[in-house]
Automatic annotation (TrEMBL):
The chain crosses the membrane at residues 20-37, 49-68, 74-94, 106-128, 134-154, 161-180, 192-220. It comes from Streptococcus ictaluri 707-05. GO terms for molecular function: monoatomic cation efflux transmembrane transporter activity. GO terms for cellular component: plasma membrane. Signal peptide: none annotated. This is C4-dicarboxylate transporter/malic acid transport protein. The lineage of its organism: Bacteria, Bacillati, Bacillota, Bacilli, Lactobacillales. Keywords: Membrane, Transmembrane, Transmembrane helix. PANTHER family: DEP DOMAIN-CONTAINING PROTEIN, TELLURITE RESISTANCE PROTEIN TEHA.
Amino acid sequence: MLFSSLLITEASLFIIGKSLWWLFFFGNLYLICYYIGQFVFPFSWTRVFPSWSVLFVGIAMAALTAPASQEFKLGQGIFGICLILTFIILPIMSIKTYRIGLVDSVMSNISTFCAPLSLLSVAYLSTFETPNKLMVLALLLGSQALYAFVLVQLPRLINRPFNPGFAAFTFPFVISAISFKKSLSFLGITGIWNLIVAFEIILSFALVSYVLIWYVYFLAGKDIELVLFKKTKP
């Protein structure tokens, strides 16, 4: 949706961009319905992961991109639904993560705890013409509390062998930094808080770079293994 919203802003690509926006929106809806039908019911804790927040709240991108798509009413409705889903999903994620436990390969998914409220914070500012300051403040405090919660666990989460699940260290930290910056700007808060914004931006950039480098090594290694396999195959 974010990509299609960029196309919409170009007059010559408006139709393509708007068509893609609706395609991605309905595709996201289908994915949610399919996942619920296949993996949520009958319910089993073995199928619960922190990344549920990405699946069920990620459609809030429809609200975030509302200024481009001009689907403000739809965006506002999606925001409300995703806010409710967030408060339903977070306790389930917490029980699975901290009471039942996660296997080592998906521990990086814990980073997604800070994504939902941060995404909703930016979405709220984007889709409502006159955002309520108390609502913005509440989303800011909630999202940053979860950000801090994830941040203190980051050294333990990242200090393990690389696996593709490390992608979870990218979007949650990026959207948290964007959310913090936009919320402070809307509320007119400056001073030392700008230093914290800078820290979050730098950290998110460092994490994205770190994951990108490791992905290059990971994929290059797979290619090398494939080439060697072909050469040694009788």
